[in-house]
Amino acid sequence: MHPTLDTLDTPAAIIDVARMQHNIDRMQQRMNALGVRFRPHVKTSKCMPVVRAQLDAGAQGITVSTLLEAEHFFAEGVTDILYAVGMAAHRLPHALALRRRGCHLKILTDSVASAEAIAKFGRASGEAFEVMIEIDTDGHRSGIAPEDAVLLEVGRALHDGGMRLAGVLTHAGSSYELDTAEALAALAEQERAGCVRAAERLRAAHLPCPVVSIGSTPTALSAATLDGVTEVRAGVYVLFDLVMHNVGVCTTDDIALSVLTTVIGHQNTKGWAIVDAGWMAMSRDRGTQKQRRDYGYGQVCTMAGTVLPGYVLSGANQEHGIVSREGEPDADIAMHLPIGTRLRILPNHACATGAQFPEYRALSEDGELAAWARFHGW
Fold this sequence. Notes:
By secondary structure, the chain is α/β, with parallel strands linked by helices. It has helices at residues 17-34, 48-56, 67-75, 92-100, 112-125, 150-159, 181-204, 217-220, 242-247, 279-282, 333-336, 350-354; strands at residues 12-16, 37-38, 62-64, 80-86, 104-109, 130-135, 164-170, 211-214, 231-232, 257-267, 272-275, 299-302, 307-316, 321-325, 342-346, 359-363, 369-373. Helices cover 31% and strands 24% of the residues.
């Protein structure tokens, strides 16, 4: 007999397939309307059925965060892959092996030292790597500022070193810290303009720059125009989470990932229900803690996926979670959520919660559950 939400062992990671497909269609339609290629970041799901749905909707190529992801998806027939993490020299043999087997792998750098190492290894191996230069458009993480002189030095080290300078790439990760439409639109324009400016500087120096790649889920959904951009990357949009809800780019009804859990006990005087989903299921990510609303370790829903207003996973140990009501404790929680009750918890960060599980259970509209494998590692 196939498992159902009533019989599945808990905790379990559940993907609501209808919500996921809605999210995929929404993003793809927006990219189509803006006239850019869409290259989803698949680190959120690390799951082939999810990626297949993205490609079927019109995505062109994928973005990965590890070479293991590149290996996995290449083995499944995906050949156009961007490894969007700065290339460490010790990984170059792995990247070379993928390219030699027919993977159109593009790699990333943001320093002269790294660019020179790539070029040296490439020449010694007889391989002209396709290399993107990472641009810092918001001071969030890594990359070269659009006006920095180092940009041209890196471009020359790659181009003159015999590599293929594929373009420029940026990620406005500080968008996760915003929560108004006006601020998101402004950052989206800053991201676009900064990356386009970097491309213009390279071209003015007679260096090739065919690709201008930008993206984060909030800016992709907030950009008014993408003039000068050739492709957009975004990842968490496919499942969404509570951080994205607080940012303002989705509702709780758009969140396609949840963790199915069972009530296993109570602390009545504290107004607690104890569930079998702790931080090993939800992750330790408390991304909503610094936002306008803190959801603890997650928003509590009924087994059917309906939000229970005011109830959150307020605490977590390794295998135990604490469900409580915000504000005044629920003195009748044992009656409202008796032992054996099944709940679903919406996560703070879909990427982190997904990473706790070896597989997802894909929930169709008719209530059937399919097993979708997910992989781990680097």
